[in-house]
Design brief:
single chain, 286 residues, alpha/beta, TIM Barrel, 5-stranded parallel β-sheet, 11 helices, 13 strands, 39% helix, 14% strand, globular
Length: 286
């Protein structure tokens, strides 16, 4: 089994590259037709397990998994059996939010049920999803409301608490208030895709964060080619931070790992370039 650079999140050793799962489920951020066709090709237990195994064989053993009613948990189990090792599972659960939630709190019985299920599935790092976290961000009081209780409940179940967010403010306010979290999920890519402020602002927030940051959307849902995207990501985050990547095939997983290692080691990538007829004039003659 090969190794990939690692970091620590709340006492848990994780690979600095994280397996993303949006592409596994057909979440393409493109068109409905693109998403349906991607799901038709990829969203199968065996296909997803093949991709996870390709990552795992190269030392990428950490996966960001939404524990919804999908085939991903079964694919993780199959991949673990084939690899002969457990994966580090990061979950991003959601909780019901109403207009009264910021003041009265969540439905704590629901929160308990969801977190009990996450712990039972072997989740190591639990990070309430952006759909829950970001509506609790109060820019007037500079706090993430009600998350102190959620984080405490995550701790009580032996999981590491974090926050999944699309708001840069979440990182700032959680750090300022001393919220008991060990990591953040934050969108970060070279073109600013889905980011709320300019790229340089988010880069500064990541560099200043008190805890490691898991960056997502590094390739802007396929809009940035891997070389450009990963060169930017690995050279602008800290050694403690992580990059989440999504793929549709084992070959892509292998290529992303090998490319990332070359970038981190400051050597030329060894991957074969895609060849087309229009590039024939660029090839050396024998």
């Amino acid at each position: 089994m090969n190794t990939f650079p690692r970091t620590m999140v709340g006492g848990v050793s994780v690979s600095r590259m994280i397996i993303g799962t949006n592409w596994f489920l057909g979440y393409t951020h493109c068109t409905n037709a693109k998403s349906r066709s991607t799901a038709r090709l990829v969203t199968h237990t065996a296909s997803i397990a093949d991709i996870i195994v390709a990552f795992g064989k190269r030392g990428v053993d950490t996966i960001m998994c939404p524990h919804t009613a999908t085939c991903i948990p079964a694919a993780i189990q199959e991949a673990e059996q084939r690899l002969g090792q457990k994966l580090v599972v990061i979950s991003t659960p959601s909780f019901t939010v109403t207009k009264r939630t910021p003041v009265d709190g969540f439905d704590w019985a629901e929160v308990d049920r969801v977190l009990d299920a996450e712990a039972a599935k072997g989740v190591r790092i639990c990070m309430p999803h952006t759909s829950t976290t970001d509506v609790m961000v109060d820019k007037c009081t500079r706090e993430v409301r009600q998350m102190d209780v959620v984080c405490r409940k995550i701790r009580e179940r032996g999981m590491v608490p974090g926050l999944s967010t699309h708001y840069p403010e979440t990182v700032v306010y959680a750090d300022e208030s001393g919220l008991d979290v060990e990591t953040y999920i934050q969108i970060f890519n070279a073109m600013g895709f889905l980011m709320h402020v300019e790229v340089d602002w988010v880069a500064q927030i990541i560099r200043s964060a008190k805890k490691p940051v898991m960056t997502i959307k590094s390739m802007a849902a396929g809009q940035i080619r891997p070389l450009q995207a990963l060169t930017f990501s690995w050279n602008t985050i800290r050694d403690c931070d992580m990059v989440t990547v999504g793929t549709m095939a084992p070959e892509e997983a292998e290529e992303l790992v090998d490319l990332s290692l070359a970038i981190l080691e400051r050597r030329a990538p060894a991957a074969d370039l895609q060849q087309t007829r229009s590039k024939a004039t660029l090839l050396p003659q024998t």
